[in-house]
Design a protein that fits this description.
This protein is α/β, with parallel strands linked by helices. It has helices spanning 9-14, 35-41, 46-51, 53-67, 80-84, 106-110, 117-120, 122-135, 148-157, 165-173, 175-199, 216-222, 224-237, 252-257, 271-278, 297-311, 331-344; strands at residues 72-73, 90-92, 96-98, 141-146, 203-207, 241-244, 262-264, 283-285, 317-318. Strand 8 (283-285), helix 16 (297-311) and strand 9 (317-318) form a beta-alpha-beta unit. Helix 4 packs parallel to helix 8, helix 9 (148-157) packs across helix 11 and helix 15 runs parallel beside helix 16 (297-311). The two termini are 32 Å apart.
Length: 350
C-alpha cells in the first residue's frame, strides 16, 4: 500500500476533499519547452528516453523541481503498450508517431497479443519505482494510458489523422472486427494500468484524445464500454481515475458515467457551466487554453483568475491546461501560471 504523501492537495482535490489552495499540474509538463529537457533529448531519441528508467525519471522530475507543480506525471508515451502488443511504432520529430504496418484486417488483429506487460514494458514500472523513491513523498505521481478507442485509432489510421477515415470505415463496414480489436486492446490497457498502480502510481489519467471526433451514439458503442472497463479496474485499486477527451464537451454525461473520479476538460468548455452540470458528481480538471501561455504575465494571471472565479468556491478543482503545453511556450510563462494558481486560488478555499 502507498504511504501517505506530504503534499496531498492534488489527491484531496481528486476526491473533492477540502484543500487550502487549488492544485495544479500541466499535461506534457516534462517536454520541449524546457531547455533542460532539450539537453536530455540531444543525447537520445524519444523512444530511448521513454525506455530508459533513469532518463525517464530525470525528465519526469524536471517540472517538479523547476515549476513546483502539485503532481508529477510519468514521462512516457501512450503508445508504449501498443508496441508491446506486437506493432512497430516509429516516432518522428515533426509528424508524430507512425505505424509502418497499420491494422488492415482480421489477420492483423489475430497477429496481436495481449502482452505480459510486467515483462514487455518493465522499464515503465522500474521508472515508477525510481520516481517514488526520488520524490520522497513530496507530491503524488500520476501514471497514464491511452484509452482503448484512441489506441485503436492510431493502430488503424497508422498516424495522427484529421478526419479518421480509416477507423470510421471499420465502424460502418466491419463493426464486429473493430470490437474484436478493442477487446484485445482493453485487456492490455487494464493489465498496464494495474501494473502502474502496483509499482507506485497514485492516480491514473486515461487519455481518450480522439474520442471527441465521435458522435454520441458512436462514442457509446465504440469507446464508452471499453473506457468504463478500464476505469472500473483503476477504481478497484483505490487510486483516482482521471478521464480526458479532447473536444469532449458534448460527451460530459457519458464521461461521468464511465465512473471516472475526475473529468479533465479541454479549453473549449466553460468550467462554470460544466460545474453546474456535472461538478457535484465528479472533480474537474483544467482548462486554460495552452496558447494563453504565449501572452504576457499580466494576461496569464488574468486568465487564470477567470477560470478560478468560474469554478468558484470549494474543492474538486485541479488546475491544468486544456491540452498539452506547446513546445515553443516560454518557460517563465509556464512558471507564472503555476505561481498565479497558487496565489490567486487561496480565496476560494477559506
Amino acid at each position: 500500500m502507498n504511504k501517505p504523501v506530504k503534499n496531498e492537495t492534488f489527491l484531496k482535490a481528486c476526491r473533492k476533499e477540502p484543500v487550502s489552495y487549488t492544485p495544479v499540474w500541466i499535461m506534457r509538463q516534462a517536454g520541449r519547452y524546457m531547455k533542460e529537457y532539450q539537453a536530455i533529448r540531444a543525447k537520445v531519441d524519444f523512444l530511448t528516453l521513454c525506455k530508459t528508467p533513469e532518463l525517464a525519471t530525470q525528465a519526469t522530475l524536471l517540472p517538479v523541481d523547476l515549476l513546483e507543480v502539485d503532481a508529477a506525471i510519468l514521462f512516457s508515451d501512450i503508445l508504449i503498450p501498443v508496441e508491446a502488443m506486437g506493432m512497430e511504432v516509429v516516432f518522428t520529430e515533426h509528424k508524430g508517431p507512425l505505424f509502418p504496418k497499420p491494422i488492415r484486417g482480421e489477420d492483423d488483429i489475430k497477429g496481436l497479443w495481449v502482452p505480459a506487460v510486467e515483462e514487455k514494458t518493465a522499464f515503465v514500472f522500474e521508472a515508477i519505482r525510481m520516481l517514488r523513491k526520488e520524490l520522497s513523498q513530496r507530491i503524488p505521481l500520476i501514471g497514464f494510458s491511452g484509452a482503448p478507442y484512441t489506441l485503436a485509432t492510431y493502430m488503424i489510421e497508422g498516424e495522427t489523422s484529421r478526419n479518421f477515415n480509416s477507423i470510421k470505415k471499420w465502424m460502418y463496414r466491419s463493426p464486429a472486427l473493430l470490437h474484436q480489436l478493442l477487446e484485445k486492446v482493453t485487456k492490455t490497457v487494464i493489465a498496464y494500468v494495474n501494473a502502474q498502480v502496483e509499482s507506485g502510481a497514485e492516480a491514473i489519467q486515461i487519455f481518450d484524445t480522439w474520442a471527441g471526433a465521435l458522435a454520441g451514439d458512436e462514442y457509446e458503442t465504440f469507446s464508452f464500454p471499453y473506457t468504463r472497463q478500464v476505469i472500473d479496474q483503476i477504481r478497484k485499486t483505490g487510486v483516482p481515475a482521471i478521464l480526458y477527451i479532447n473536444g469532449g464537451g458534448l460527451l460530459l454525461d457519458d464521461m461521468v458515467a464511465t465512473g471516472a473520479d475526475v473529468i479533465s476538460l479541454d479549453w473549449r468548455s466553460d468550467i462554470r457551466k460544466v460545474r453546474e452540470k456535472i461538478g457535484e458528481r465528479v472533480a474537474l480538471q483544467g482548462n486554460l487554453d495552452p496558447c494563453v501561455l504565449y501572452a504576457d504575465a499580466k494576461t496569464i494571471r488574468t486568465r487564470v483568475k477567470g477560470i478560478l472565479e468560474k469554478y468558484g468556491k470549494g474543492s474538486g478543482h485541479i488546475f491544468n491546461l486544456g491540452h498539452g503545453i506547446l513546445p515553443d511556450t516560454p518557460f517563465e510563462n509556464a512558471k507564472e501560471m503555476i505561481r498565479a494558481v497558487h496565489e490567486e486560488s487561496v480565496i476560494y478555499h477559506k
